[in-house]
Amino acid sequence: MAPPCCSVADLRALILGTFDDPGLAVLAAHLERVEVAAGSVVVAEGDVDRALYFVLAGEARFLRGDLQVGRVAAGGWFGELALILGRPRAATVEATAPLTLARLDRPAYERLRDAEPALALRLVETLLAGVADRLVDMTTSVGVLLRDRSFPRRIDVPVRLRGGITVVRTGTPLGELLPARIDGKLVVGGLIDRRATSLRWPITSTCSIEPLTTAHPEGERLLRRSAALLMLEAAARLDPPVTLRMGHSVGVGQRVEVAGVEGSLATLAARLEDGMRALTEAATPLHEEWWTVDEAREHLRERGWTDAADLLDTWHERTVPLCSFGRVQALALGPLVASAAAITGFRVLGDGGGAMVLTYPEEARPARPDGVTETLADIVSQNRALVDPTDRWLATLGVESVGAFNRACVSGRITTLIRVAEGFHEKRVSQVADAILARGRGARVVGIAGPSSSGKTTFIQRLEVQLQVVGLEPVRISLDDYYVDRDASPRADNGDHDYEALEALRLDLLGDHVARLLAGEEVQTAHYDFRAGVSHPTGGPRLRLRDDQVLMLEGIHALNPAMLPALPRDQSFSVFVCPLAQLPFDRLWRVMASDVRLIRRIVRDRHGRNHDAAATIRRWPSVRDGERRHIFPFQHRADAVVDTSLVYELSVLKVYAQRYLLEVPRDDPAWTTAARLLQLLDRFVTIYPEHVPPTSILREFIGG
């Protein structure tokens, strides 16, 4: 037998100090000495290396991906489960200083077991005792982290599931109680007491459980976010790694901002897509962990996620959840899929124009309306033109994330931010008025369209003022006065009257009135009696257009060429109004414009119309469906686009919206969305309404 790799004194300094010297001498004879240079890997995560290592000198760290999860120094050891059970390595072990190890591999252990069974058994007992001690220490630490709630109160809990009561073991993952699909739709999460939750979440108390599929708007959102995190993970695993940031939504997907990449974006897109598919095919699990705010902030800042670290400066809780598919640790601002296997049907697209897009997974991708012929490159280009101006002036103010915005509020810069934001709006409105004037007598009809809660009413009022400033007198006609009789209106799939369909308007009457007005005739306009549901073709005011007047048409179809097919394009000027540019939380998460509009509508309906938030939320999916069919397919026809977003508005809307959302009953289907919106608002510093100017678009929703 070869000379021992280490002395009895070396082994006595380890946990083996209770062994007698003859026993240590026998053990030393079965060990192999290993020298490892600083920075070198001893074993890699996932390796099946059936060996135990004693650290005789030096120090090493344990890594899961790029995340350090522990350290070991002289006197310690690692690999007992690999030796005894043959488990793959749970972490990479990397030397942080020159390392001297004593290695006991499986064949050497078997020789020891056969020759000295009592000594081998005692070694195993000692190693397992060390594992137990570490588990106790870990449980104690987790108990402190979770405020001494590391142990369940009961062994079994009853839950309401599928219309009955089922008793489950405490700690059972939610995913074990739900099917993979329902009515052909993928189950991506669950609803625990109506709150969207990851399938990995352990059941610990009596609750009501429902599946969350991609048929639900929150299920779509969950799957889209998961695909974005998977893309960031794939980018981190490239050689060399690539820095990505998820950008604004472009309808069927999400823009992706790429930093420091040389070469073809199409090539990079293909590599990223291949990397994502590999993670999907491997069913890479999602890891979710709770960190203290301080350690999470330090970790994120070290890795360049400064926007996420800034957000934690105003984080109220003492802990923060992080999520990962391996190397990239991101804030867990909402539930994600339990496994990458659920993320399929996506594409990563890039072209020479500098654009990269992650299309949403097929099951979470909105249907493309009939008649839309734009390419994805066209849509991305339009999106850039719409949101980049706002992003640029926010960058000049140093407000490029929610965390940076909160810091500006706390440091007393909010008055400046409000003035600049409102000034940006006023400048944009005046630019639209100038563009209408520049058209000369050609642009006699101004069409204004935008989705729900875009601030169209206030925009039109401000545009009317700016038109008067440049010498044009606006004359307004509401498309609502040209509805057909209620009995003749088209029906939606659910049988209700579809007032958003183009066929709900008396297009022939509208076209006749507009043509006569442009010809200089006096016209008795129409009026619609909403109470009786009856159209009065001559019930409105009499109008005649002067040379210095323009006709303003406001409604969801104002950009649709089929509304006034006989009107030449050069005789109209169309405006698309919508809150577009929104701040990111970090490289993965950002505020969605549709959420801003929904919160605006909740506040307006409850604050000004006494409609409760639950009803507004329940109606929102049908509102969004109407927008996708009747407004967004024609936004590219607009001669001008006005971004009505205000960087500070969620901080003001929060004053009202938090209470209105808390009024939603916990057993109401609307609570799923209400709970998520409450969490969104909680990330913003509060600004009181008296700071809002009286002419602000925000006043349309909060009053005053």
Explain this structure to me?
Strand 15 and strand 16 form a beta hairpin. The protein is an alpha+beta fold. Strands 9, 10, 11, 12, 13 and 14 form a 6-stranded mixed β-sheet that branches. A 5-stranded parallel β-sheet has the order 23-28-22-29-30. Strands 1-8-3-6 form a 4-stranded antiparallel β-sheet. It has 19 helices and 30 strands. The chain has 4 domains: 138 residues, Jelly Rolls; 109 residues, Threonyl-trna Synthetase, Chain A, domain 2 (Threonyl-tRNA Synthetase, Chain A, domain 2, 2-Layer Sandwich); 213 residues, no CATH class; 75 residues, no CATH class.
Topology, element by element:
Blueprint: H1 8-12, H2 21-29, E1 32-36, E2 41-43, E3 51-57, E4 59-64, E5 67-73, E6 77-78, H3 80-85, E7 92-95, E8 99-105, H4 106-115, H5 117-145, E9 156-161, E10 164-169, E11 181-182, E12 185-192, E13 195-197, E14 207-213, H6 217-236, E15 243-249, E16 253-259, H7 265-281, E17 287-292, H8 293-302, H9 306-311, E18 319-324, E19 330-331, E20 347-350, E21 356-359, H10 376-396, H11 402-410, H12 414-438, E22 445-449, H13 456-469, E23 473-478, H14 507-518, E24 523-524, E25 527-529, E26 534-536, E27 542-543, E28 549-554, E29 572-578, H15 593-608, H16 613-630, E30 640-643, H17 649-662, H18 671-682, H19 699-702
Parallel strand pairs: 9-14, 22-28, 22-29, 23-28, 29-30
Antiparallel strand pairs: 1-8, 2-7, 3-6, 3-8, 4-5, 4-7, 9-10, 11-12, 12-13, 12-14, 15-16, 16-21, 17-18, 18-19, 20-21, 24-27, 25-26
